[in-house]
Amino acid sequence: MQLQDIKALFKRHKEDQLSHRYITNKDIEPLFEKLSKHVQVETIGKSVLSNPIYGLKIGNGKKRILMWSQMHGNESTTTKAIFDLLNSFIDANSELNFILESCTLYIIPILNPDGALSYTRINANQVDLNRDAQNRTQPESIVLRNTFENFKPHFCYNLHGQRTIFSAGNTNKLATVSFLAPAQDEACTVTPNRKVAMEVIGVMNNALQQIISNQVGVYDDAFNLNCVGDTFQSENVPTILFEAGHFPNDYGREVTRELIYVSYLASLDYIAKTEVTGNKYESYFNIPENGKCFLDVIIRNAKIDGILLDVGVLFQERLVNNRVEFIPKIEKIEKLNAFYGHKEIDAKGVAIYNGEGGVLEIGYENVFVILNNEKLLLLSK
């Protein structure tokens, strides 16, 4: 598929009922009726708090692809893109039936509905499900494992979101989308099924480079068998980690949503049309490893206690009245020459204070500081 065709499909099929960062079962359940003529919707289990975990099946092809999103409840961008993708599939005019004839997709749109509801990474028992792959102490972990064993996928898509701190390498380029072909042993051996995952990631990277040049990264592949991706990879199923990251001024992750959609369709198009052998895996190693070079705001050259320093701010995500709000928090007060800000302000040697006129300290939270006797808003409007 041509990139312009994928972008046109997204524009036509973006699910308008899903937006911003707070996505729960209540948001996706009304969408099932529209999908029901083409998508098999079933309840495959319950969360700790007895909220339903849904499974969606579409397609009848021999190549089986398992996708799960919101394993971490506050990582919803990939969920939005799932429903954009499903809208595209159920429209005959999209001409995507070749994918459904070649592939069968099984999708868990929200694996951690309790975490989604409270907008937390962990589940209701305070467990990170992505560290529970071996012990499977949580009902959500058991649901995913049972689905994996029953569906017997040929590919796994492990769908996540990442913070605003990540860079593509140690550069001033954002890692707006990141991937990983997880390791399957302590030696991080480039095994045949890792090569298959790497080949598919290379295809997605080629598509994304046309839109966000030099803004794609990969994660360190240090092995941890307690992680779901490493576990599935170790069982010889090519597994791909997707990480939806930050695009400038896109704190609602709507631009990134489209980039994830592009990744979905570019990869599914390739899998549908190709017997992926892993022979074309080398381009994966051209993608830079993620650095942590960004802060949300940097105020440079500010005078604090008579010394010229830089102030680094990270936004804290808080659920307020069923909407995610961003609260600026002072993360660093030092020379930040190795860091870049999504927003940068030059204080030009002027003294800076907290919002009450006191000394600015690490951990201080407020939407503004005082610079040159004026309130300086840290959040972009």
UniProtKB/TrEMBL annotation:
Needed cofactors: Zn(2+)
InterPro entries noted in UniProt: Peptidase_M14 (IPR000834)
Keyword Hydrolase carried by entry: yes
Record key words, sorted: Carboxypeptidase, Hydrolase, Metalloprotease, Protease, Zinc
GO BP terms, alphabetized: proteolysis
SUPFAM superfamilies cross-referenced by the UniProt entry: Zn-dependent exopeptidases
Superkingdom to which the source organism belongs: Bacteria
Gene Ontology cellular component list: extracellular space
Domain Peptidase M14: 11-271
Active site as annotated: 243
PROSITE patterns reported for this sequence: PEPTIDASE_M14
Keyword Disulfide bond applies: no
Membership in a protein family: Belongs to the peptidase M14 family.
Protein name: Zinc carboxypeptidase
Provenance organism: Algibacter pectinivorans
